[in-house]
Amino acid sequence: MKKRINLMVGPKREGQGGISTVINSYFEMGFVDENNIKLVSVNKSGVSHFLMKLFFLLSIFKIIFLLLLYKIEVAHVHMASRGSYSRKSLIVRILKFFNVKVILHLHGAEFRDFYSNECSDDKQQHIRNTFMMVDKVLVLSTQWLDWAADTFPTTEHFQVLYNSVIPIANNGSDSQIGKVVFLGRIGERKGAGDLIRAFHKVKAKCPNAKLELAGDGDIEKFTALASELDISDSVMFLGWISGDKKLSVLRSADIYCLPSYNEGFPMGVIEAMSANICVVSTYAGGIPDAIESDKDGLLVNAGDVEALAQALIKLIKDRELNAQLAKSGKIKFENNFSQQAILPQLQSIYDSLTRKAEAA
């Protein structure tokens, strides 16, 4: 009799981006070992298109080898948009051919735009077919569940599962008043330009304020913007950071800011909440599920530079409000986004599908 295992399909653990962070959290929390999960990485960043295709082809062979060698009960497939969808939709069909129970975990912040604006009618039908053939679809927020209800024939097998992170210990001793931190890809979708323009207004009211932006992206473009606004001496671009460097940057923050236009459920926001750091963000994607404005942090409309600036100024100057919102955000993290809150939900999904696999 074949040994029973579960399978997880997604990017490499050391990859950049939210999905890798989610997968790493499952490893660090012990969920992967407890459920006998084997991870198969299907894409490799920083390589040529040819090598990317070769890496994907090898991952397909690996998945088929595992399907032949083991009894795979549940396959947990992490998906974003565009190329990620193309790769994962093929894998879903292979898995269903072998009668594997499949969880499709949708992470793509731009999947709604991808579906509506970039896909032909036939491609949209292909997407609907993919989502209907799996056994469970996990989305990152109630906003994404609403989109699914408007898009797919039925959403009975859809469920919201919030992202979770290992909490960041932070006693506040390294916090620097007026220091605003941004983590993520530095580009227009994440609102990097809006943040720099807003910070120019912040400097006029809070001369000692500083801004640190950590992430990859179009750094030269936004360095030039900071120079144009004559705030280069107060704006630092750190590049992509992780590990101890990332923890150090977060612990030094007074405010975490993510003024995005599109989001799934941003890991940086809940990391900041876990670290007792006040958050300023927007009403994009799943962010309102994490932050109730004026209660757990402050939210503004994406693109409203003036409102963003005023929110940052308010939290730099009003120390009592800053501390109050940070404390409320930490409590919300513990109750809703901690491993104690999220992992039992995911375990219940695995257990349910495993029982169905055994009965099949």
Question: How would you characterize the overall build of this protein?
Answer:
This protein has 15 helices and twelve strands. The protein is an alpha/beta fold and 360 residues long. It folds into two domains: 182 residues, Glycogen Phosphorylase B (Rossmann fold); 158 residues, Glycogen Phosphorylase B (Rossmann fold, 3-Layer(aba) Sandwich), CATH 3.40.50. It has a six-stranded parallel sheet, with helices on both faces. Strands 9-8-7-10-11-12 form a six-stranded parallel sheet, sandwiched between helices. Helix 8 links the parallel strand 7 and strand 8. Helix 8 crosses helix 13. The longest helix has 21 residues. The mean pLDDT is 94.
How are the elements arranged and paired?
Layout: E1 4-10, H1 18-28, H2 31-34, E2 37-41, H3 49-69, E3 71-79, H4 83-97, E4 101-106, H5 111-117, H6 121-133, E5 136-139, H7 142-151, E6 158-160, E7 179-183, H8 192-205, E8 210-214, H9 219-228, E9 235-239, H10 243-251, E10 255-258, H11 267-274, E11 278-282, H12 287-290, E12 298-300, H13 305-317, H14 319-336, H15 339-359
Parallel strand pairs: 1-2, 1-3, 3-4, 4-5, 5-6, 7-8, 7-10, 8-9, 10-11, 11-12
Helix pairs in contact: 3-4, 8-13, 11-14
Number of domains: 2
CATH level-1 class of the largest domain: Alpha Beta
Q: Termini separation (Å)?
A: 16 Å
Helix content: 40-55%
Which descriptor suits the 3D outline? Answer: globular
Write down the oligomeric state. Answer: single chain
Précis, in short:
With about 350 residues, the protein is α/β, with parallel strands linked by helices. Helix content is about 50%, strand content about 15%.
